[in-house]
Amino acid sequence: MHAWTIFPANIPACPQRRERHPMLMKIFRVMKTTYALLDPQNEPRSVNAGKHIATFGCAGSEVFIHFGLSTETSTRFAIVLRDMQIEDKVQNLRILVPLELVPTVADIRDFVLARLQTTLEIFCNETECELARQVWEPVQVQKYHAHLLDRGVIESIDSPDLPRCDLCRSWLYYCGCCRIARCPFSCDGYPPWRKCAIGPCIFYFDGNCAECAVGGATQCVCQALWGCDDCTPETPDDVSRCRRCDRSFCKDCSYIDVCFHCRSSSLCHDCSEEASENARDVKEIFLCKKCTLRHCDQCTTSRTTSCAICKKTYLVECDDTSDCDPCWDQEG
User: Fold this and answer.
1) Residue range 299-318, pLDDT digits in tens
2) Cα angle vertex 60, ends 59, 63, to 5°?
3) Residue 108 contacts by C-beta under 8 Å, 6 or more apart in sequence?
4) Which end of the chain has fewer CB within 10 Å, C or N?
5) Residue 216 DSSP one-character state
6) Percentages helix, strand, coil for the chain, rounded to the nearest 5?
7) Distance between CA 68 and CA 70 in Å, rounded?
8) How many CA atoms lie within 13 A of 111 on its CB side?
9) According to DSSP H, which parts of the chain are helical?
10) Could you tell me which of 241, 288, 290, 247 has the C-alpha nearest to residue 266?
């Protein structure tokens, strides 16, 4: 029998997030649905909860997935891949795997078969997770080419093992979690990937496919930044928080003003409207129309001046005339 324990996600075999097993999110998705259907009080809330144990592998010709609690020695659920069924060993019943999970379970089966057939070996500095990624990436390249063929956008596959898009010839990208292969220009018709805005993180560099990006949290109200499950408790350096509502805002967001020098922020625009004029937490930050940077009243000792014509505000050090350039040109 060949078997691999993939949960808890922080087992010594995968000490770093950058080395996570490509089947981690797929097995978590199956485990979460299984418990939600048959044992909802023990449904896992996140990959890092540490409450569950998941083992998958092959015994003879049978590919299996086993789920249980870390406080128990016996297996609670078994996924019978041959019949696409979920077996509850406590209640002694079987149910069909939900249709939306069938492709995920099939991927796990394909991985186990590919892992058993590989001639690759784990070297002294490698982990099982690293080897699993090496095994799974070529399989995903072949699946990418087959996907384009099934969609009818190509007539044949010239190089099934070449990690390049058949249409734009760009090198394929791999999801930072499940290692699925995708075209960076979405020639395959799939939605764009999400990248974790908080580095260092595997998803900061590689990005996350739509299926693996279901967790995490948006890091800005403008939806421009997203953080993965592991990093959402942290705040990246280029993200500011409103001191009143505690929402996050990216450095380019128009919903809040941030001082270029000290990175301190005013209240967000929603909170500024609600706050009274003499509220102590309202920080004065203005945009210089000449240098196009935002400055707070504490970081600049320069006086401000306004264009006599359009009334736009400037730092005195940024302009030596009382009129702004566009207005000066018009007057001339």
Assistant:
1) 665 566 666 556 566 665 66
2) 50
3) 23, 26, 27, 30, 56, 63, 65, 81
4) C
5) S
6) 25, 20, 55
7) 7
8) 29
9) 24-38, 102-117, 128-151, 202-205, 269-274, 325-331
10) 241
* Residue 98 structure tokens: 């939900």
Residues 242/271, Cβ–Cβ less than 8 Å? yes
Summarize pLDDT for 185-198 with one digit per residue, the tens: 888 888 777 777 66
Alpha-carbon torsion 312, 313, 315, 321, what sign? positive
Within 8 A by CB and 6+ apart from 290, the residues are: 314, 315, 318, 319, 324
Query: SS3 for 61?
Result: coil
Separation CA 289–CA 315 (nearest Å): 8
How far is the C-alpha of 12 from the C-alpha of 102, rounded, in Å? 30
| H-assigned helices in 61-164 | 102-117, 128-151
- Least Cα distance to 3 among 77, 74, 63, 48 occurs for 63
Output the pTM of the full model. 0.64
Whether the upstream peptide bond of residue 98 has omega within 30° of 0, thus cis, is no
Q: Where are the beta strands (DSSP E) in the chain?
A: 2-7, 52-59, 62-69, 77-80, 85-88, 93-96, 173-174, 181-182, 217-218, 226-227, 239-241, 248-250, 285-287, 294-296, 304-306, 313-315
Chain center to CA of 184 = 16
Q: Enter the DSSP assignment of 187.
A: T
Q: Which amino acid is at 84?
A: M
CB atoms within 10 A of CB 310: 12
Structure tokens at 144: 């990418």
Number of H helices, E strands in the chain: 6, 16
CA distance 295 to 226: 27
Task: Give whichever of 154-163, 249-258, 283-292, 323-332 has the largest mean pLDDT.
Answer: 154-163
Distances (CA, A) of 161 to 145, 151, 256: 9, 19, 48
Which tens digits make up the pLDDT trace of 84-107?
999 999 999 999 999 989 999 999
Q: Which two tokens stand for residue 111?
A: 């991985």
